[in-house]
Amino acid sequence: MSETGSEQQVLEREVARLESEGYDVFLQPRAPLVPEFLGDYVPDAVATGHGKKIVLEVAKPSKAESEKLKEVAARFAKQREWEFKVLLVSPTSLGEALPVQTHQAIDGALEEIERLGQDANASRAAFLLAWATLEAEGRASVEGKFDRPQTPGRLVQVLSQEGLLTPSEADQMRVLSDKRNRLIHGDLGTEISKDDLGSLIHVLRRLAAERRASVRP
Per-residue pLDDT tens for 26-60? Predict the structure, then answer.
């Protein structure tokens, strides 16, 4: 896979989906994770779980790419343990572009999160709104990187690369992103602790404070 944002985004979205379903996913795998019958071919990812082994490849539609993928797919013809899955990148696969939220809207969402956080029975609702607000903050703060819907993994990665998250905050957000994935995909037993929500609110408050400071004359 070439290193373009669109392909990376599609891959991360699929990885998040598979992990939320209980699969173990390995990016850019090498032997022994890649089966011998693939030779020197290196897929974008391998997923294992539920008695399945899946090779993932992300590609943009083209004649040359199609010929290459046909050749790779042919190697799976007699394989019972392995499945080959191709994720084609297209404008529709990325989702529609989202508008940049105003600073007032983001600050209003943060106030709502803090109110919800005071209710022990609303911690999960506050947590999901906080993740939405983190993405909105990123879209408003980093031009051109978050035009379309983001996976939690890419959101944290880019915010860290841009210096908006400290290394320790990025590590915290990666841990919390797993809870976010489980909860948003229907694992209603996922518990959100006071510390979980507090960590996310702390990051949002800091980002909002830095944003306000940056626009002062």
Answer: 988 988 899 999 998 889 999 999 999 999 999 88
Phi, psi dihedrals of residue 56, rounded to the nearest 5°: -110, 135
User: Strand 52-59 and strand 82-88: pairing?
Assistant: parallel
Which residues share a beta bridge with 82? 53
Phi, psi for residue 17 in degrees, rounded to 5: -65, -45
pLDDT score, position 2: 40
* 3-state SS assignment for residue 83: strand
pLDDT digits (tens, 9 = 90+) for 202-214: 999 999 888 878 7
Distances in Å between the alpha carbon of 89 and those of 8, 26, 65, 112? 10, 20, 12, 36
Residue closest to 89 by CA, chosen among 13, 171, 187? 13
* Second-level CATH architecture of 5-94: 3-Layer(aba) Sandwich (3.40)
Nearest by Cα to 126 from 207, 201, 20: 201
The CATH number for 103-214, chosen from 3.40.50, 1.20.120, 1.10.3470, 2.40.50, is 1.20.120
Amino acid identity of residue 145, one-letter, is K
Q: What is the pTM of this model?
A: 0.60
User: What is residue 193's predicted lDDT score, i.e. its pLDDT?
Assistant: 93
